[in-house]
Amino acid sequence: MTYEEDRTLHLFDLVALLGRRWKLVAVCAASGALMAMLIGTSIPARYTAKAQLLVARSESGPEGSFDEAVVDTHVELILSPSHLRAVQKSLAEDPGTSGPATVASPPPFSDRAQRPWSKMLSDAIFGANDEPPSAPTTGSSGEAVPEESEPIDFEDLQQNLNVYKEQHSRVVAVTFTSENPQMAAVIANRVAEMYVNRGRDRLQARRERLEKELAERIPSARAAVERAEAAVRDHRMASGLIDQKSVESMDQQIAELRRQLAIDLARLGERGVRLSALLTQQDQEGPRVDVLSDGQSANAFPLATEAETDAADTRHQAVSLQREELSRLLDEVLAELPFDRRALGERLHRTRERLDSLDQSRETLREAEAKLRELEREATASAQLYESLLRRQTEIFAQDRIQEEAHIVSAALPPAFPSSPSAALFVLPAFVAFGIGGGLTAVLLERFHRRVRSERDVEESVGVPCIGLVPNRFRMSSARRALIDDPFNSYGEAVRSVVATALSRRRIFPHQGRVRDSAVFAITSSDKDDGKTALALSFALSAGTIGRKVLLIDLDFRNPSIAHSLEGFGKDRATYFREETVPAEEIVKTIAEFGIDFLPLSCRREYALSFLSTNQLTIMLDNFKDQYDCIVIVSPPLLGATEARVIASVVDNVILALEWSATEVDVARRAISQLGHVGIKDAHERVFGVLTQVNMRKHHFGFSIRRGEVKHLLTTRTSGD
User: Fold this and answer.
1) Residue 20: CB partners within 8 Å, gap ≥ 6?
2) Residue 698 sits in which domain range?
3) Do residues 540 and 633 make contact, with C-beta atoms less than 8 angstroms apart?
4) Are strands 519-525 and 653-659 parallel, antiparallel or unpaired?
5) Per-residue pLDDT tens for 27-43?
6) Res 115: pLDDT
7) Does residue 530 form part of some domain?
8) Which residues contact 218 (CB under 8 A, 6 or more apart)?
9) Phi and psi at residue 41, in whole multiples of 5°?
10) DSSP assignment, residue 242?
11) Same domain, residue pair 541 and 615
């Protein structure tokens, strides 16, 4: 793609691009599919066997629940290096003695049998192999034994082993992948069985260890209980705490003594206060009845009250008698009061001594009680330990079998079908991926493609207007049928479109008294083999079919291809211009079959420069302009031929033949730039581009002039002449 201004690849351009390069895309897609098939057939099939373990429910958890951490712990323990080392060692010692008995034999391990595409491909490349597959060997116990007897590598074991927890369950899956289905089943079962067996052995060893430990600890625990009970009993006897009632009686005695002591102290204090008050009052006022003792006041106060009442009522009684009686009673009280106080003090002293003795005894009992409680706690702890040991021993003896942490619920069987994807699954993705890659490659090639492919390339990249596209179906042997007998075929339409456009857009000079309005075109190319010869012949023949009188001149002195092409047509063969003195009009030959005249001037190269450097070409063209409507000159390529630039300077317009998808843009640009050396500055007006040898299947072809327009142009030109 060579667009200068807009390099955006539109959808139409993309479709056209892929249509042109469909072979590249198809080859890439087919190569990818074939490569995927070859790689798939070269990779051996892999089989995955799965064994399942059921983890025991935790006794401490609630009913219907399980601890996921416990299941995860089992998964990690199965994948632990120590367990895998043990499995590797077991497989090295016994590669096939563990596994499910009498398992179903899988289909023969053959990729070609399971993948028909690879079978056909391998049979086509390496030849068919009709040897029957060997049956798998079996061990002494009937288990399938893998054919491989070499010990498995630890890294392979670790890489191909997979352990995981099934969704929302206590089931642990153990899978192993191998190229041999029997080996996969054996290793998966070996990993599961060894984990279960190791767990069982660990629990059995733990049980035996517990039984031995209990047998050793129970006698010592029994002796400890007996010692603790004896210590409690001896302490009770030594401290007098055999009966709890004695302690309670002592507490009651202490409480009673404390209460009596408080009462006596209160009475002693009260009497002392009254005695002091009485003595003081007697010294000052005489005896008073309100300070007597308790026992005497009981007799004195009624008498005093009665005397006062009688005195008040009978004011006539004698007061002296009453005072004498009261004085006598007061004297008796004062005489007895010191003795009562002394007796009360002695009783208080004895009560205190008894209370102190009881307090000391109670303190001793309190210490003995604390010691007793400590001994009782030790005895209780020893008894509980002894009972727990006995209960644990009973539980162990009551268990008929060991409660396994996990057990196998499903043993692994040799898989019948491979777990690895079939090679056929990679063919379609590879086909699509490589097809896309081929399309991208085509786009990249188109981006960097510097060759003309369309009118847009000619106009924008080369810099000249494109007046048409000519298909690559023209052959001289069918020229009459393509351009004369059947003028409305695709090739004839394309050439007439070029002719009509060139005639309508040609540079027009003043007539200067000429009879005809003659048009002179030089058909050239940037390099050889660009299709200018076929374009020149077709242009001349097509111009003749629309009623124009056409002269075809071959000025390609280096490669006179027109003369060789016309040599086989018509009865009169073209003669060659051999002498400079012969007039050009005399050697013009009429090709009656095509209705055109032909002037071959390319016989000798040494005459070329002398013919073109002088005014002979200009004079000759001026003479022919009065005789012909259209003069078509076949010019040598612009690059490498000086005479081509001279010819371009004397004609009305130059038609540049550009071979579709072959002519380089840079080459065409250099060819256009060569015209500037001969004074042609308006190349975009005097030079027309035509794409030749266009593959219409790869290029969307649109007519520049429709059939109706061509017929109208033919009618107009004919009527004008």
Assistant:
1) 453, 661, 695, 698, 699
2) 458-720
3) no
4) parallel
5) 999 999 999 888 888 88
6) 45
7) yes
8) 386, 389, 390, 393
9) -75, -25
10) S
11) yes
